[in-house]
């Protein structure tokens, strides 16, 4: 964790969803551990790979010989199962206040998630969080995290240079994607610290957002 208070400045924030704004670990564990059993795979290894990626990208890593079309079909089935299961989906501590500060301050931000629109709208609603007006979802990208495409598209949608964006992420795949996009990354939660984010916090209660007079966003961390 960041031991001493840190201030980062940005022109826009790019926010992952699962593990960053929404704690969906309960349903992700249920769905993917069941999938691991169905395919004779070690469930712990599956969970090490699954976080942060689109489902078909996880399958491609774990079942490299399986045809892409089969992974895509399986991914559609998995997404339907995840979208139908909101049991245990809750906000990450501090997420509501964090988003409220961005919205009330009119501060540029976008959701950049590996989930599709039905899953992301469902989980944000289940957690009682507002759905950002600007978002990059699975439907908008050709490559899953750790590819930086999603974050670069988010920056382009907001009209902000990648170097002026700060990413909030919880997973190794997401942190790698943010860094590859040339952005600074605030790692959120227990998974993030091992993957080299710029700074690391336990949850969003450790982040305070301030609007600067020149249009910059100041992030007081720690």
Element-level helix/strand string: EEEHHHHEHEHEHEHEEEE
| Poorly predicted runs | none
Oligomeric organization of the protein chains: single chain
Q: Over the alpha carbons, how many angstroms does the gyration radius reach?
A: 17 Å
Q: How many β strands by DSSP? A: 11
Distance between the termini: 9 Å
The overall pLDDT, averaged over residues, is: 94
Number of helices: 8
Shape assignment = globular
Largest sheet: 6 strands, parallel
Given helix and strand content, the structural type is alpha/beta
Q: Percentage of helical residues?
A: 25-40%
Write the layout of secondary structure elements.
Elements: E1 6-10, E2 12-15, E3 22-23, H1 25-38, H2 43-50, H3 55-62, H4 68-83, E4 90-91, H5 95-104, E5 109-112, H6 117-126, E6 135-136, H7 149-158, E7 165-169, H8 172-180, E8 184-188, E9 199-201, E10 207-211, E11 217-221
Parallel strand pairs: 2-5, 2-7, 5-6, 7-8, 8-9
Antiparallel strand pairs: 1-11, 3-4, 10-11
Helix pairs in contact: 1-2, 3-4, 4-6
What does it look like?
With 222 residues, the chain is of the alpha/beta class. 38% of the residues lie in helices and 19% in strands. It has helices at residues 25-38, 43-50, 55-62, 68-83, 95-104, 117-126, 149-158, 172-180, and strands at residues 6-10, 12-15, 22-23, 90-91, 109-112, 135-136, 165-169, 184-188, 199-201, 207-211, 217-221. Strand 10 and strand 11 form a beta hairpin. The protein is globular.
């Amino acid at each position: 964790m960041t031991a001493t208070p840190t201030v980062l400045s940005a022109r826009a924030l790019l926010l992952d969803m699962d593990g960053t704004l929404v704690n969906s670990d309960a349903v992700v564990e249920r769905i993917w551990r069941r999938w691991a059993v169905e395919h004779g795979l070690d469930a712990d290894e599956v969970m090490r790979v699954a976080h942060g990626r689109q489902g078909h990208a996880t399958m491609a890593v774990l079942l490299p010989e399986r045809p892409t079309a089969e992974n895509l079909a399986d991914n559609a089935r998995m997404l339907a199962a995840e979208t139908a299961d909101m049991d245990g989906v809750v906000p990450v501590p501090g997420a509501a206040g964090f988003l409220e500060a961005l919205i009330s301050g009119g501060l540029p931000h976008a959701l950049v998630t590996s989930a599709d629109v039905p899953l992301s709208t469902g989980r944000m609603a289940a957690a009682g969080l507002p759905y950002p007006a600007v978002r990059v979802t699975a439907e908008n990208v050709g490559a899953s995290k750790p590819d930086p495409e999603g974050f670069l598209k988010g920056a382009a949608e907001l009209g902000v240079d990648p170097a002026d964006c700060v990413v909030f992420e919880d997973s190794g795949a997401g942190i790698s994607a943010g860094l590859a996009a040339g952005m600074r990354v605030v790692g959120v939660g227990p998974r993030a610290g091992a993957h080299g984010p710029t700074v690391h916090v336990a949850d969003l209660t450790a982040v305070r957002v301030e609007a600067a007079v020149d249009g910059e966003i100041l992030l007081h961390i720690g």
